[in-house]
Amino acid sequence: MSENINLKEIQRQIYLFYAEDGLADLAVGLVIIGFGIFLLVDLPALVGLLGLVPLLVWYLGKQILVIPRVGFIDPNQGMKSRFRDFFITTCLLGIGVLVFFLLTRVSGKTFLSSYPLTLFGLVLALGISSLGMLLKAVRFYLYGLLIFLAMAGGESLYGKVTAVDPFLVGVICAGAVILIAGSVLFARFLSKYPLIRRDN
Amino acid sequence: MAEKNDPNPNVDVEINRLVHEPARLKILAYLTLVESADFTFLVSRIGLTMGNLSAHISKLEEAGYLKIKKQFKGNRPQTLLSITSKGREAFEAYREEMFQLLGE
Q1: B40 and A14: CB-CB below 8 Å?
Q2: pTM here?
């Protein structure tokens, strides 16, 4: 048995542990599609719940389906710092956007008042792209781009396209694409890693 | 010092054969990059059978390179493995030996 042992590749495998199963993709897809559905049924106040359901799906999926198949790791301090920094950055980003929104409303800046959802889409895209940076998974950059284009495009077409609400269609379609991608990854993961029967 | 009939005239380093074995080297490589990992994770990543992996883990534990902690996670037993400081030193020393030998 002679194999090259590449520590960088092993580290990539460890990060893959968090991204390979597709659960993060499912969670992101649920957030986006849920946002669209909430707007469709005109319940924007419940948007706050959007974080809870995907988080629950991610957590339960990991505990019940993923860990019994590929095991469990306690990451090292470097990795924990990256996760902590990501969490802090996304919180700050969210707070920053909220403050910016409030300030622009007060000061009456025209551009942002006209395109608030584009800005929201940009922030969401940045958040999802940073998730890709954290998990070293390139596909999250594409998800971010897709979401931004769906929201920006939808908002700019709003009022010009009257048959359907282009923003809602864009958001729900983007969410559905990500959800489908996540489902495919998840199904592939389940077939690649059968349950390990031995109690260890 | 190298001698004329020495089969390895340029080799002055002693290789730690316990670490040198590819499966054990992989086990240590994974465990240096995490705080701990369970048995299932190593089975899924290293590609050995459970019996084979157990045997290698036992050897590393006997040498004091690994620490094994058995616990229950809910109703399921879980075996957590972590590298000891002795194991980390042995792994780093092995890496240094390889750099000296291969010059990479």
Answers
A1: no
A2: 0.78
